[in-house]
Predict the 3D structure of the following.
Amino acid sequence: MAAAAVGNVALVEALLERGADPEACDQYGQNALHWALAEAFKRPGFTQHRLPAIYARIAPASIDVLAGERLVRIDRQLSEYFLLQTLWVPFRSRFTHATHHLNGGFETAAILDAWRHLPTSVLPAQRNRRSHLSNVLSRNEVSRDYAYNRALFQRIGHGWYQFNPALAVRSHQGDDIVWTPVYQRLNLALIHETTFESQWPALLELLAAADLPMPPPLMRAREYAAFVAERQKLELRRARRQTARMPAEPRPVAATVPPLDPPPDPPWGMPAAKALAEQRLAERIAACGRDEGSG
């Protein structure tokens, strides 16, 4: 990594001849190529005179990723290969530099700015254009309907992208092949320790999307506890407002009360039974009189 970062081609070759692993990573998941690219994106002189020779010797032939249940091999000649390697380099800085956007993502302008001095031997001129870059990003979105979609990126805003949280990257540990979730490989938990407080919301969303643990930063435990408490209050208020906007349930329509059954006649021989019989007889006589009058 150090030899690649300073552009010492002879030392890189000597190390490779002695069995150095160009894909070995540091604590942030960056290998020797990422260290060389980090210098190339900052130093035009390094880019023009040293990067081509370094790139030819240490860039892996391909990257193997697992997008959900789909195994994808991205060869070095593909545009997706160089874009993926590029975004790997400044990922940590998206959370540890206050000048970056609060969503922690990547926009095309920042990528093109990093590429502005790259030689065509590393990045062909037709690929170093906004239209081509936007096409590569959009056709590899998680939800994009495209036959060769590799599901590498997730759109987090208009023109803003981030790695697909469901992505896993293949690595070697001795003779074993290991698939590591992309945000675990990038060590998002360690980045969490040094990020700015303004970036905590975006970082927490990534951790939750990747289903990774969210331990509080050791150096700022008190501030983080206050942040989490305030975030929970906001979520509770949002839930209450949502509930208040919901239409009230209609009141149930009162059921029609069925008529009561007539009370039974009093037992025969009782004064009440005699009075009831006289009343009914009088009603029948009156009804007969009305019928005769109408006839």
Observations:
- The mean pLDDT is 85.
- Residues 1-60 form a domain with the Serine Threonine Protein Phosphatase 5, Tetratricopeptide repeat fold (CATH 1.25.40).
